[in-house]
Amino acid sequence: MTTHLTRAEAQALARATLADMFPGRDWGLGCLKNLDQPLRAQVFCAAHPDRHLVAKVYAPAEASRAAAQAARQAELGRALAAGPWRVPQVLGFDADRLVMVMDYAPGATLAALWPGLDPDAKAALMTRAGGWLAALHGLSRRQGKLRPARQMGWLARRLTEARDGLRPFPEMAEFAQALAQLEALVPELRGLPVPRAVTHRDLHLSNLVVSDGALWGLDVENAAEDDPARDLVALLIDAVALGGDIAPMAAALASGYDDRDTPAELRLFLQRAYALGLWCRTPAQPSQRQALKLAAARLIIRSDAPLI
């Protein structure tokens, strides 16, 4: 079964689906990923003089994932269809060609806006981003209990693997010290109430768009429950890496998210744990972008107080 599609193969499938959905219209298709190579899924902006859409085309081997992601996107599109926090609507899913067609949010991503913004404007957008995340998590948020064994075990295994030469990462000795400090907090925190929710799991400034007076979240295809802190830490790291001071960015994000239920000691534990997760996924010779994100993660780890 085919695992990847070329751009041309995916364009042909997208055109056929669009022709069925909108007879008599010709659509220009521009690739949104800017990677001219076979991919498991290709994403296009479909342009017509009176409308813009997004078409995501999956390879045949991705059929189960495509159906699940289309269902999740459609669910969120209905739930966040109006107001200040939105998700693009799914207009159709072609199960035969594995093409999902969605509305297009015609605005700039926060990543595109970021370099030209002053600190106050960045903080204002981070507050709005916190509000969008709160709306997303609020759809499924429930109270659970902290069960850190799996996460702590994964971090420890990554350190062991790296020491054995498998995917080493920068400054492993310092990582080990930070991990030991985190482990020391576990006995007092295990079993305490902590929120759980279906999260984004790939949240960064490029997945948030300002359009029509609202903030839109893109790529909302995850349906697995997780710690909401994962999304908060990922977004804060990205904002700081792209040029934001950590204290005001964190304060703005926390203000928008407005978590009044999670105890401070748990928020501190979770922010450190997810920042350590990014650290041990950073290659030993990081790109400039990866190095900036690692630097942001280490700022979070060094904080003695919860940031978000």
UniProtKB/TrEMBL annotation:
Keywords: Transferase. SUPFAM superfamilies: Protein kinase-like (PK-like) (SSF56112). GO terms for molecular function: transferase activity. Residues 47-266 form the Aminoglycoside phosphotransferase domain. InterPro entries: AGP_Transferase (IPR051678), Aminoglycoside_PTrfase (IPR002575), Kinase-like_dom_sf (IPR011009). The keyword Transferase applies. The keyword Transmembrane helix does not apply. Gene3D superfamilies: 3.90.1200.10. This is Phosphotransferase enzyme family protein.
